[in-house]
Amino acid sequence: MSGDPGPDRDGRTALDGPSRQALTRERIIEAAIDFVDRQGLTALTMRGLGKELGVEAMSLYRHVDGREDLLEGIVDRLIAHLHPGPGAGELGPTDGWQAYLQWLAHGVRSLVVEHPKVFPLIATRHPAAPWLRPPLRSLEVVEEFLTTLMERGFSDERAVMAYRSFSSFLLGHLLLEASVLGARTAPAEEPLDEGDSDVPHADQAMELKDFPHLQRLEPMLSEDHARAEFERALEDLLDRIDRTITEE
């Protein structure tokens, strides 16, 4: 008797053919990152992701333990890129701590530029331990951070101070940049309906005739100098840390 073949254990059918890729946790997480890059974090559901992969949502649960586990997998996958590894970033034992922090800062910023809609997840997910500070929320990354600085002469107290200052710098600058690049950095809320106002975009349509300085400087205020501002602020931070560790 003819009929459509039923799904196999991964939610695929015989019509999919042998070329269909098998589901793995890695493949699911990569697909989820791509999904969020295109549609945003709030749109990510197990059912929607399953549709993207051509399988039923239940098939995903054989590899990820629900949406929360999927979100953790996304964060872990992207944060893993921050580990230098052999030769990565061309950092060696003789490179100074400034070189390491510059490498790490640019590594985190690259996550923002490449995945602006995912970065708020990295910045706001509850860390593995309460004393971890996003976006450096991985135990491995923080251990590496402290080890690298201590090997370059930092005391315990100075290394912890540098970690706190560096994390705050990254979080403030990069969440703002992610927002400029289109990321939602706050929970979705229903806009307050006040008459005929278009609340979500009211500021973009605002008349500036009563604000002469804003009107005159609007083109300058609209210029994108995110990269240069990040570089200047990073240099200022490194100088401040340098002065702190040399104080008696």
Tell me the radius of gyration: 23 Å
Strand content: under 5%
* Structural class by helix and strand composition: mainly alpha
Low-confidence segments, ≥5 residues, pLDDT <50?
A: 1-19, 187-205
Going by CATH, what is the homologous superfamily of the domain at 84-185 and 222-246?
Answer: Tetracycline Repressor, domain 2
Largest pleated sheet: none
Task: Give your account of this protein's structure.
- With 248 residues, the protein is mostly helical.
- Among the domains are: 20-64, Homeodomain-like (Arc Repressor Mutant, subunit A, Orthogonal Bundle), CATH 1.10.10.60; 84-185 and 222-246, Tetracycline Repressor, domain 2 (Orthogonal Bundle).
- Helices cover 54% and strands 0% of the residues.
- It is built from 10 helices and no strands.
- It has helices at residues 25-39, 46-53, 57-60, 66-79, 97-114, 119-124, 139-150, 156-180, 212-221, 226-246.
- The model is unreliable at 1-19 and 187-205 (pLDDT under 50).
Summary?
The protein has 248 residues and is an all-alpha fold. The chain has helices at residues 25-39, 46-53, 57-60, 66-79, 97-114, 119-124, 139-150, 156-180, 212-221, 226-246. 54% of the residues lie in helices and 0% in strands.
Strand-helix topology:
Layout: H1 25-39, H2 46-53, H3 57-60, H4 66-79, H5 97-114, H6 119-124, H7 139-150, H8 156-180, H9 212-221, H10 226-246
Helix pairs in contact: 1-4, 5-8, 7-8, 8-10
